[in-house]
Task: inverse folding
């Protein structure tokens, strides 16, 4: 399945232009890693079963070794080796350049395992599952952003190309990128949300 552009793409670009590192946070399976891979020049996946033990041993003894690679370097599931947080912060300070690292992970980290907040070095970006516009199921004719931010925003007469059955299917399936592969259903089938 080809990559479907996310609203987070341009936000990630902007943050990489302004900060040394970006932490992408969000629920499991919402597309954090795939979105980060679109802009990363090198990738370290800490949960790779063939390399996990070696990566974790290296992180314990010399975490900076895991930061070598073309930038921005994606460190996926960084929370498995929380000492990488401080290594990233130190490397960002030393290199004094934006766009060095992208960190992704779904699980919370015990803050006692990191020594620095990352303020000024590591920007935080929240990701959610895909909207109907991102999954190409909405035309985007009406802008939610404009509805909230522009009191003069006018619209009227726009119609969704989705049927009620399509909307029910999309609501039950959710916006999880991998779930978009299940795009068909039988007419008249009952959906239990």
Result:
């Amino acid at each position: 399945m080809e990559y479907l552009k996310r609203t987070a793409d341009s936000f990630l670009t902007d943050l990489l232009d302004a900060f040394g590192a970006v932490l992408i946070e969000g629920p499991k399976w919402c597309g954090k890693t795939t979105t980060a891979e679109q802009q990363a020049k090198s990738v370290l996946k800490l949960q790779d079963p063939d390399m996990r033990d070696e990566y974790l041993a290296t992180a314990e003894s010399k975490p900076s070794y895991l930061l070598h690679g073309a930038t921005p370097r994606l460190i996926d599931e960084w929370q498995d080796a929380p000492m990488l947080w401080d290594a990233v912060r130190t490397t960002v300070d030393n290199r004094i350049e934006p766009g060095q690292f992208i960190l992704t992970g779904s699980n919370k980290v015990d803050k006692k395992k990191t020594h620095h907040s990352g303020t000024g070095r590591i920007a935080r970006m929240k990701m959610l599952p895909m909207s109907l516009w991102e999954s190409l199921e909405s035309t985007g004719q009406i802008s939610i952003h404009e509805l909230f931010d522009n009191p003069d925003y006018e619209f009227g007469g726009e119609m969704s190309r989705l049927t009620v059955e399509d909307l029910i299917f999309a609501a039950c399936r959710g916006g999880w990128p991998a779930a978009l592969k299940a795009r068909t259903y039988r007419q008249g089938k009952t959906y239990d949300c």
